[in-house]
Amino acid sequence: MEKFDAIVIGAGAAGMFCAAQAGQAGQRVLLLDNGKKPGRKILMSGGGRCNFTNLYVEPAAYLSQNPHFCKSALARYTQWDFIDLVGKYGIAWHEKTLGQLFCDDSAEQIVNMLVAECEKGQVALRLRSEVLSVARDDDGYTLQLNGATVAAPKLVIASGGLSMPGLGASPFGYKVAEQFGLKVLPTRAGLVPFTLHKPMLEQFQTLSGVSVPSVITAENGVVFKENLLFTHRGLSGPAVLQISSYWQPGEFVTINLLPECDLDAFLNDQRQTHPNQSLKNTLAMQLPKRLVECLQLLGQIPDVALKQLNSREQATLVEMLTHWRVQPNGTEGYRTAEVTLGGVDTRELSSRTMEARNVPGLYFIGEVMDVTGWLGGYNFQWAWSSAWACAQALAE
Ligand SMILES: Cc1cc2nc3c(=O)[nH]c(=O)nc-3n(C[C@H](O)[C@H](O)[C@H](O)COP(=O)(O)OP(=O)(O)OC[C@H]3O[C@@H](n4cnc5c(N)ncnc54)[C@H](O)[C@@H]3O)c2cc1C
């Protein structure tokens, strides 16, 4: 049986970063993954350019049943610390929008950096490793792998959530938590497109690919101002992905398709100067033409000139375009979700070390726990911050 100071399960963002930091602090660390490559989600992330953090990271950008939990780790290892590390490896980056930082070249640079950091910490990385069982005794944890037995006094679960099973996602972490008596909160897909009920989907079929700026509001009052995208399955784009984390089945979302325009004032103004202009062409000055044409075909935009539009019709139109109420049929689920909401209850963990309060030597980091960030680099920052806090504790 091989012995280590710590075993980390999951060579994703959190696991690699934690193993590297603990290794560099002098710990003998084994890092296991069931896949054949480390950091598979990182490679796919940010359209291949990895949105590795956000300039505006703050605890309010995270959903959790225990909202204070993330504060300590985020404050101790910040976005600036990770930007510093990226800088040391000479990885060029840029801010795309809303503080989101992406690699100029490729997400592979982040994976290569994490692998190099692991090598610097002499981490033993074993890929294609299935963990068949986990047992605990007075000396710590013993793991049966396919073909080997390994042991360590400390075990870190960094196996992520359920989103994108094609990239190695598994319920492994939740099962380990339950095995040791920790509560696991119900999970659901987050940062995920909405599907629409059939009649509505058919109405908007011609709009697939149309993107519009929007303000989208959930029933609980949470608001995002980002782009909305019509797809052949329903609605997507950053606005929808963001609000999906706050949406529950059966609820409505309210969408303002003209967030930058006072539509009432605009129509009044246009009526004064161009009374014979069609309403359709007038609206097409503010909205994509395909959207206007579709809404007209659906009878939601009257086929009239501006001078013929009465005040009641105008009020209905303004309401429809600025308070469009949509009841999604559901979401596309874990298949396309970027994250998993819920997971290991953080009330069971120390916010300083990520260790289970009642199970000495057992740690949870990254997405496996009930901390989920907004779209825009917040989830990777949680992976880095929680991993760093855990690594400090492993080295204590
Ligand atoms: C397509 C996509 C794009 C994304 N883009 C971004 C982005 O640009 N910015 C951002 O902040 N977030 C992004 N995210 C979210 C982000 O990838 C995750 O929040 C983050 O990877 C979580 O890190 P983690 O280490 O906790 O889990 P993961 O990175 O998922 O790593 C978990 C690892 O554990 C391994 N594993 C699972 N089960 C077992 C097992 N039984 N035995 C051994 N190993 C196991 C998996 O193979 C995996 O390597 C994206 C997610 C997806 C799916």
Q: In words, what does this structure look like?
A:
With 396 residues, this protein is an alpha+beta fold. It folds into two domains: 2-189 and 340-395, FAD/NAD(P)-binding domain; 193-331, Translation factors (Elongation Factor Tu (Ef-tu), domain 3, Beta Barrel), CATH 2.40.30.10. It is built from 13 helices and 23 strands. The strands form six sheets. The chain has a seven-stranded antiparallel beta sheet. The protein has a five-stranded parallel beta sheet with strand order 8-3-2-12-22, with helices on one face. It has a four-stranded mixed beta sheet with strand order 1-11-10-9, with no helix packed on it. Helix 1 (13-24) runs parallel beside helix 13 (378-395) and helix 3 crosses helix 13 (378-395). It is elongated, with a radius of gyration of 25 Å. The model has no long low-confidence stretch (mean pLDDT 97). The protein binds flavin-adenine dinucleotide (FAD). Flavin-adenine dinucleotide is lined by residues 9-15, 32-35, 40-41, 44-46, 50-51, 131, 158-160, 163-164, 168, 170, 172, 338-339, 366-368, 377-380, 383.
Helical stretch tally: 13
Overall morphology: elongated
Helices and strands: which structural class? Answer: alpha+beta
Reported for the largest beta sheet, the result is: 7 strands, antiparallel
* Helix-residue proportion: 25-40%
CATH homologous superfamily title of the largest domain: FAD/NAD(P)-binding domain
- Residues in β-strands, percent: 15-25%
CATH class of the largest domain: Alpha Beta
Q: How many runs of DSSP E, i.e. beta strands? A: 23
Strand order of the largest sheet: 19-18-15-16-17-14-20
Please name the CATH topology of the largest domain: FAD/NAD(P)-binding domain
